[in-house]
Design a protein that fits this description.
30% strand, globular, single chain, seven-stranded mixed sheet, 23% helix, 22 strands, alpha/beta
């Protein structure tokens, strides 16, 4: 006999970094999904330990005054955008609090100057890139189960992975944070795939033709790039489907400037064996502070084009670069910070692991007629490579923008020994940033911190920290 899960009644008073609302009963901490601070709820407990427990929202007894109706019909099931039910100005306040909590809890930093979160100009339809997965194992939604609906296409889905369940795909028709035109493209490709009975990828036996769909948008050009990733063509039906799809997209979607077909035969979902440009140039352009950037099909670019100028401007304000400065931009990507900084300094080095990003960065350097920059392809996490930095001109400023995992201990040691006058540390993960700042505190002190919201309705936050060499 299955054990009945425990339910509790609880009032939530805060929100955790990864999005669950938080409440306490007799000193024990409860993390409740899909609730917001101020809610009084009934929750069903899904996991319980001695000091904390996790639960799902079962019933709202009295709603928080900051609770709002989510715009997306898939809220609570998709796993993304899990702050949609919280007023946007409160999201900004809690993101700042999450930064404060990370620096206090992980870094033991108190009474820091942490500025108010800069909000996004666009709350919805802001993402310039979304990746959707095809799957043979569709996630049945709560209403479909409760209404005993007869689901025709249980073995076909095009949508997003269920949080914590990479074998299940939530089938969706639209995403509230991507461009509405992109939603039309998403729905069209799904309809055509079903009509032509094209098989989706099956994770269990590594079969099926359709794997994923990436839709990218250029705000500067108001145009789209569509990338369809498939397995190898195995039959005439799949070949004919691609040819007809190419024709129909080209003549029915005037804003699609690029169509790319890519092949992935690996079990790794992010591997690309090869790709071909069906129509278009195979790239488009975006702008940052009047500088043009070439965007290749699989190259990284900040996902919120409406907020990127504000973000980069704030980084440059913290850096306070002069025309006499030598600058190092570590983890520079395709130069989104490097090139605007080059307009202000004497000389700047951009250092990056990804060779394709360096190729794009050098192209963008020439595209914008910038000469006082050199891009270097170096793995900064490998301690054997760090001596390559010794040959560079000594910096007045180092900008750091590492991945979510933060900076390696080897690079932390190097920077501590470098004793440069000023550091600007940009991070999309306050937890690893706080950890790294603690390790850097041997020689540097935090002057101020600026959270910038690039991801409305999610718990994610970009964070800029200014550190100065201790006297």
């Amino acid at each position: 006999m299955k054990k009945e899960k425990k339910t509790i009644e609880i009032t939530l008073d805060s929100i955790a970094f990864e999005g669950s609302a938080v409440g306490r009963i007799d000193g024990k901490v409860y993390f409740i999904k899909n609730a917001v601070p101020g809610d009084k709820v009934v929750s069903v407990i899904t996991k319980s330990k001695k000091k904390f427990a996790e639960g799902n929202l079962l019933e709202i007894i009295s709603p928080s005054k900051f609770r709002v109706e989510p715009k997306c019909e898939y809220f609570g099931e998709c796993g993304g955008c899990n702050w949609q039910n919280l007023e946007y100005h409160k999201q900004l306040e809690w993101k700042k609090q999450n930064v404060i909590d990370a620096f206090e809890r992980i870094g033991n930093f108190y009474n820091l100057q942490i500025l108010d979160t800069i909000g996004s100009h666009q709350e919805y339809n802001y993402r310039n890139k979304m990746e959707f997965s095809f799957g043979a194992n569709r996630w049945l939604r709560n209403n479909e189960i409760s209404n005993n609906e007869n689901i025709i296409n249980k073995e076909f889905a095009l949508g997003l992975h269920i949080s914590g369940r990479f074998d299940k795909i939530l089938d969706i028709d639209k995403c509230a944070i991507q461009n509405e035109y992109a939603n039309q493209v998403l729905k069209y490709i799904k309809t055509e795939s079903l009509k032509n009975q094209i098989s989706p990828y099956n994770l269990k036996n590594h079969s099926g033709f359709l794997r994923s769909l990436i839709i990218r948008y250029s705000l500067f050009q108001d145009s789209f790039m569509v990338i369809l990733i498939t397995n190898q063509i195995n039959n005439q039906n799949e070949d004919l489907f691609l040819k007809e799809l190419s024709y129909n997209i080209k003549y029915n979607f005037d804003k699609i400037s690029n169509l790319i077909y890519a092949i992935n035969t690996s079990k790794n979902p992010v591997t690309i064996d090869s790709y071909s440009v069906v129509f278009g140039d195979g790239y488009f352009y975006e702008k940052i502070l009047d500088l043009k950037y070439k965007i290749s099909p699989f190259s990284f670019f900040q996902t919120n084009s409406y907020q990127i100028n504000t973000f980069i401007n704030r980084i440059l304000e913290f850096a306070d670069i002069t025309t006499k400065d030598i600058v190092w931009d570590l983890f520079c990507g395709a130069g989104s910070i490097t090139l605007p900084a080059a307009k202000k300094c004497k000389f700047i080095y951009g250092v990056e692991l990804s060779n394709s990003a360096i190729i794009d960065a050098n192209f963008n350097k020439k595209l914008n007629n910038i000469s006082n920059v050199e891009f270097l392809n170096i793995d900064l996490n490998n301690k054997n490579n760090l001596n390559q930095l010794d040959s560079l001109l000594y910096p007045d400023l180092v900008i750091l923008d590492p991945p979510r995992a933060g900076i390696s201990s080897n690079l932390i040691d190097y920077i501590n020994k470098l004793k440069v006058q000023k550091l600007v540390y940009v991070s999309c993960n306050p937890s690893t940033q706080a950890r790294d700042c603690k390790l850097l505190s041997e020689n540097y002190e935090i002057i101020k911190i600026q959270p910038v919201d690039m991801f409305p309705h999610t718990y994610h936050i970009e964070n800029i920290a200014l550190l100065m060499l201790k006297a």
